[in-house]
Specification:
1 helix; 4-stranded antiparallel sheet; alpha+beta; 30% helix; TATA-Binding Protein
Amino acid sequence: MLAYELPHRLVLAWQLTREFAYDPDFETTVEIRFEEQDSATIVRFEHRDLERMGEGTVELFESMDGGWGMLLGLFKAEAERG
């Protein structure tokens, strides 16, 4: 964890390579921000530094976008069950 600022922000070091193998010398950054807006919480998600993954980053990003979307959807459903 790179930053943990309750209740607004969480920043994680993503240390999985393009093959989804753990590498302690490789890092991209995932930031999740929570913002109150009226009676709802807005969740903002950003996965940065993907260029570090090298060639094919755009295709990799597009495939990861679906994965993150699914995980965030599960998070939303769980939060709504609350």
